[in-house]
């Protein structure tokens, strides 16, 4: 059997551990509008697991655990730095997020690609990036 090129052709899911399951579930499913695929309580771990669809074939897994340690720092700790979502237009997405009560940082331009981007935070302070996939910026 031939291996695909590249060896890892797509991300299936990203897993997050939250401090307040109900708050994070509402943020990702209601505020950000990710579709709930499956939710389960794992009694042996006293843990909830929520599968959310980002796009077809790509999921965000949200976990709760009793007393998880906080994130060491933002954003330069080892490990996951941030999540980035592709959006057609950064400003339109920012406007909708603001309408939903989410504050975004000022828009910046990627010096290598010319694409616009910004960040906002989830309920636990995890940085989330919006990266514009539309036409290249003239800046």
Tell me what you see in this structure.
By secondary structure, this protein is an alpha/beta fold. The protein has two domains: 10-66, Roll (2,3-Dihydroxybiphenyl 1,2-Dioxygenase, domain 1), CATH 3.10.180; 81-139, 2,3-Dihydroxybiphenyl 1,2-Dioxygenase, domain 1 (Roll). 15% of the residues lie in helices and 35% in strands. It contains two helices and eight strands, in the order βαββββαβββ. It has helices at residues 21-31, 90-99; strands spanning 13-18, 35-42, 47-55, 58-64, 83-87, 108-109, 116-121, 127-132. The chain has a four-stranded mixed sheet with strand order 1-4-3-2, covered by helices on one side. The chain has a four-stranded mixed sheet with strand order 5-8-7-6, with no helix packed on it. A hairpin with a 5-residue loop joins strand 7 (116-121) and strand 8. The protein starts with 12 loop residues before the first strand and ends in a 7-residue tail after the last strand. The mean pLDDT is 89.
